[in-house]
Amino acid sequence: MNTSPADFAARLRARQRIIGYWVVLDNPVGTERLAGLGYDYICVDAQHGLLDYKGTLGAMTAIDARGTAAGMVRVPANDGFWIGQALDAGARGVIVPLVNTAEEAAAAVASCRYPPLGVRSYGPMRSGLRVGPAPAESNQQVACIVMIETAQALANTAEICATDGLDGVYIGPSDLTIALGGRTSTDTSVAEKFDAALAKVAEEARTAGIAAGIHCPDGATAAKRLAQGFTFATVSSDLVHLEQAAAAHLRDATA
């Protein structure tokens, strides 16, 4: 599936079909193995994941060791400190949560770009080994993606997608389901509204010419979302698959 990690941002901007994987565990050896399976990117979850900055740094190093997948980070918040730290660790893109307006999207973009295009502070302690390190090159090689996961963001999707310099939007299905009135993160009673929201985001991204992504519980769902107009999709997570595999082997052993 993937080509070179250095091409990741360009492929994303071109709305090419891209498939990634989600990591929440501080497990560099496991992440290194996942990075060699053929996924286009591995995204480390620094918002809800079970790892700190050293864990994120170790994950980026492990991903780069395989040399095939691009390392990404979902940062804890739309804040220049968190975004800059993730990029300095070597991330080739960030997913920024809880972005509700075009102004907030513009702030995320600015945090990803060195002057004169943005406000990122120059100090690529590790990223300089892989990304850039010249500011103009780094600006081209780093992707900025913001999440659509609230009712406010859904209402402002067109304006968010039109933000200058934004590379893509990404749906957080759990928060979006709750935002649409779901009692749980997987409440099927709001399925019709949820599907309409997906179609709206995919279409607004297409109109703006940027990438549209979504988190998926499995590969089959990822294939379905890509067929529906999304250009990139993330599959499940290491923690979920660890539990599922262990449970399946236990059932087989005790059948």
Provide structural commentary.
InterPro entries: Aldolase/citrate-lyase_domain, HpcH-HpaI_aldolase, Pyrv/PenolPyrv_kinase-like_dom, Pyrv_kinase-like_dom_sf. Belongs to the HpcH/HpaI aldolase family. Keywords: Lyase, Metal-binding. Pfam families: HpcH_HpaI (PF03328). With 255 residues, this protein is of the alpha/beta class. The chain has a single domain (3-252), classed as TIM Barrel (Alpha-Beta Barrel). Helices cover 45% and strands 16% of the residues. It contains 12 helices and 8 strands. The protein has helices at 8-13, 28-35, 53-66, 80-88, 102-112, 135-141, 151-155, 157-161, 173-179, 191-208, 219-227, 238-254, and strands spanning 18-23, 41-45, 70-74, 93-96, 143-148, 168-171, 211-216, 232-235. It has an 8-stranded parallel β-barrel with strand order 1-2-3-4-5-6-7-8, surrounded by 7 helices. It is globular and about 60 Å long. The termini are far apart. The model has no long low-confidence stretch (mean pLDDT 97).
CATH superfamily: Phosphoenolpyruvate-binding domains
- The outline comes out as globular
Extract low-pLDDT stretches.
Answer: none
What letter string, H or E per element, gives the SSE order? Answer: HEHEHEHEHHEHHEHHEHEH
What is the CATH fold-level name? Answer: TIM Barrel
Report the CATH architecture: Alpha-Beta Barrel
Spatial gap, N to C terminus: 37 Å
Protein name: Aldolase
Organism: Streptomyces violaceusniger
Keywords: Lyase, Metal-binding
Family: Belongs to the HpcH/HpaI aldolase family.
